[in-house]
Write a structure and sequence with these properties.
single chain, four-stranded parallel β-sheet, alpha/beta
């Protein structure tokens, strides 16, 4: 039987002062699935509520390793897939020993009900363990070669992580955009694979839009769906049946085309992904494009980066965590990468080019980060209130807004 491997948030993550539960919509929907459908998923609902994320991923992997016939992967953020792969190889011996024996000592850290539920699902699979032990480096492709579909976010900063995930999947795997959605509302329904654009659910919400330039200029003139134009970017305002009234999402979307007369929109970035040290108004999408271009030009795999606007230093500092960590031979390339990103930002943003040319912005600098910086940043963001399952790294930020200082992670 084909199995599905998905990572969800917990249906109940806490309670308000009023006693009302607070949790993940995806977790609630998962628990609401018919038992016949839910039985096809590798991970039972109880695992989603494990508070320790590394332990949760360890349990997810242990359950999944026993299933060679996984054909589907799903999670909102593709960085979750990268984290699963990291733990899979770092804890390889522990996981394969557990697969061989049917025992996992780490379950002692679970609540009694969680431990009882997971223990029933563990069983020895020595032949499967031996087959995996013979593989030098475990990937999605060689552990679950029958994977045919992945659903996740593909736009904005998630595209960076997704590019690294694709290299670990079977070559014929299709990636489907999960759609523009949030806790407040579902913004689009995917209509085509391998594209982030989707169709707004017209019967669920009332959408209003404000052109990007108008909003940034202090003008709040709202447009409806029939007034949108292809190629333009808009901020989204929603009114929902759940009670939100003209709620500003702080999300920037782009119209990519039309399905008949209805615009197709894709998520571009969070509105706060904009910085301005000296009036350049640099956008997160521009930062992503510049770093991706530099990485491709230099043959680097960059699973995590952060471009930091330093208002006190009048410049930008780019922090890069390379796949496997920086090597001595790569240290001299930092200046080349810095020059490439600096130049590309100027090509994408005329004001950035003007400020750099005039000396109002200092030259961009690059620093290598040792492994673990991305995990530390993610953990700090979760502690600050972001949901782990829906974490979207804002890769362009002011130094004063950083969750963690990267000084302890800089190498070279």
């Amino acid at each position: 039987m084909a199995r599905r491997l998905a990572s969800w948030g917990a249906a109940i993550e806490g309670h308000l002062d009023s006693g009302h539960p607070v949790g993940s919509v995806s977790g609630h929907l998962y628990e609401s699935l018919p038992s016949a459908v839910r039985s096809r998923f590798v991970v039972p609902p109880g695992v989603c509520g494990i508070a320790d994320y590394d332990l949760k991923y360890l349990v997810i992997l242990r359950l999944a390793l026993a299933q060679p016939d996984v054909t589907y992967l799903g999670t909102p953020n593709p960085s979750t897939f990268l984290r699963l792969l990291t733990i899979l190889n770092e804890q390889r011996d522990l996981l394969l020993h557990s697969l061989k024996t049917g025992r996992l000592e780490a379950l002692g850290a679970l609540t009694p009900s969680q431990r009882q539920h997971v223990s029933r699902l563990l069983g020895p699979a020595p032949l499967r363990a031996a087959a995996l032990q013979a593989i030098p480096q475990l990937t999605f492709a060689n552990v679950w070669p029958r994977i045919r579909l992945v659903t996740t976010w593909t736009g904005g900063s998630c595209g960076i992580a997704l590019a690294n995930v694709r290299a670990t999947l079977p070559s014929d795997t299709m990636v489907m955009e999960l759609g523009y959605q949030s806790s407040e509302c579902r913004g689009t329904i995917a209509v085509e694979a391998e594209t982030p654009a989707g169709l707004p659910p017209l019967h669920h919400h009332f959408f209003e839009f404000v052109e990007q330039a108008a909003w940034d200029g202090g003008r709040r003139h709202c447009l409806t769906l029939d007034q949108l134009e292809v190629g333009r970017c808009y901020y989204v305002v929603v009114t929902t049946i759940a009670g939100l009234y003209r709620y500003f999402m702080n999300d920037l979307v782009e119209v990519t085309g039309f399905l008949h007369r209805t615009p197709l929109i894709r998520f571009v970035q969070k509105g706060r992904g904009v910085t301005s040290v000296t009036g350049e108004k640099l956008y997160e999408a521009q930062a992503i494009g510049a770093v991706q271009a530099a990485a491709a030009s230099h043959g680097l795999t960059i699973p995590f980066f952060l471009l930091v606007a330093d208002e006190e230093d009048f410049g930008y500092h780019l922090y890069l965590e390379l796949d496997g960590g920086p090597k001595p031979a790569e240290t001299p390339r930092r200046q080349s990468i810095a020059d490439h990103v600096d130049r590309r930002l100027g090509e994408l943003n005329a004001e950035y080019h003007s400020k750099r040319t005039s000396g109002r912005l200092k030259p961009l600098t690059v620093a290598w980060l040792r492994r673990g910086a991305a995990d530390a940043y993610r953990a700090a963001a979760v502690r600050a209130g972001q949901r782990e399952g829906q974490f979207k790294p804002v890769v362009l930020q002011y130094r004063k807004d950083l969750f963690v200082s990267f000084d302890d992670y800089v190498v070279g």
